Amino acid sequence: MIDTKRLRELAAMRPEGHKVLSLYVNLDPSEFPTPRDRDTEFNSLMQVLERVPREDGLTHAQKEEAKADIKRLHSWWENEFDASGKRGVAVFVCGAADLFDVHGLARPIPSGVTVDDSPFIEPLTAMPGGDGYAVLLTSRQVARILAGGRDGMREVASIVDDVHGWHDQGGWSQSRYQRGILKEAKDHLKHAGEQLFALFQQGHVQRLIIGAPQELRGEVEQELHSYLRPRIAGWIDIDVRSSPSDVAKEAAAIIDSDEEQHEREWLDRLKSELGRNSRGAGGLAATLEALNERRVEALLVKQGFRAPGYTTADASFLSAEPGESPTGEPLKERDDVIESAFESALEQSAEVVVIRRHPDIDAVGSIGAVLRY
After folding, report:
1. Which residues of the chain have pLDDT under 50?
2. Where do the DSSP E strands lie in the chain?
3. I need a surface site. Which of 127, 129, 221, 299 has the fewest CB within 10 A?
4. Whole-model pTM?
């Protein structure tokens, strides 16, 4: 699974003078249950890629680089790839830029290949519940942090602190001893909160789900950093020792509800800003203009929305109409400018919100942006 930080790094990557091969392979076991089925799917994609070095639009050096990248992909599939636990895989390759990035996916994704000036990240951006959720499981002594989404979780931290048990002796010594235990338990929860905040700073935590005994919930929330408390999506009642798959199952309903509410809140905010003619942009042209001005706080796009457009060679300037950039650079036509819009949004640390459940996004042109100013 891929985290937001890496997604932003890929969005900003444009190896000058080189092409990036992006490969997506659907591994849905209902469609590709056997190794032979998966090999057939992979080989059909490679047949498409193998035509690339014969295309007229590439320089001789780019054609040779593509041949080497294709050879590397074949070697990876034959010798390194493991389908276990994956329902899809995304690979980004550019040997000239020392790029070979493999991301196993917890849910199926349509197969496809793209050769362009940058990694094709739009399918990852549009995946629901794919990543960005963290689950903190804690007792008074043990804490675990898992990251992922509805279809899969991976453990990223385990914290075990030495918290003594109660004893049954009475008197003043017992009172002092019990106060010591309470402090140890509080320190443990603080330790867990600090570890979670460190992961948040690294880009691994967008939303938070917490599993803790009822009597601990107030203390757990109190020890969280103030940046994390508003990110709590919900609470689950689950044993701290539960397997990652059981945690994912327990968290799935919260993730579904949280995503639906998240979409609704951003869409309502966009419509409100547009209604007041304030910090909102609706429709393709206005949204691309806002991205160019780097004013976007959140980009909202209807799931599956595609639109032709125009960009500079490095996609630093986007337009719905042909012409030139402000610096006089001719614009290149793109069959789908939405991919470039996703990349621009991620580069300026804007949130990308794919609207799946609310058809009223059509009323604003299927794409819009909430602006910072």
Report:
1. 128-129, 163-164, 166-174, 176-180
2. 20-26, 88-94, 99-105, 112-116, 133-138, 142-149, 152-160, 207-211, 232-236, 280-282, 296-302, 309-311, 318-319, 332-334, 351-355, 367-371
3. 221
4. 0.69
